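#help-structures
NK: newbie question, is this the right format to request a structure? protein is GNAT family N-acetyltransferase
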Amino acid sequence: MRAAEASVTVALESPRQPEVDEMLRGSEAYSYSLYPPEACFLLDVESLERPGVAFYVARGDVGEALGMGALVDGVDGTAELKRMFVHESARGRRVGTSIIERIEQDASARGIRRIVLETGTRHDAAQAMYAKAGYEVVPLFGQYVGEEFSVCMAKNLG
């Protein structure tokens, strides 16, 4: 089987794992290479462990961590997608899409009706992936209002 055809499993896991820590650092380095620090809205490990936060890890055939994402409960049936990141070696293998699909399934089962997210103006691949998954650009919301590097998107579930 070619690497691009390898299976991916996505499950709820702890963010306190060496492989996950490596991805968190990679995500930060990538974001800081594109944007000033004050324009990066990254949740730290402590925030990812809080009640109301579901943290997901995508793994490959031999259990290697390929990507991650988190869903943060909001109000009125809305939740926010955060810390989406796919390891560079796994890009192009639908890992991000697999994470989104699992998060959306779990969110729907929990009664969440809408998922919102913020990405950056220079994250073209991420914006394309979200759009392909049915997310549409919406006005900046919450802490992102007035942020020149932010793009907000949303999807209604079910």
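mod (FA): yep, format's fine, and the tokens are attached above. The CA atoms of residues 79 and 115 lie 5 Å apart.
NK: thank you!
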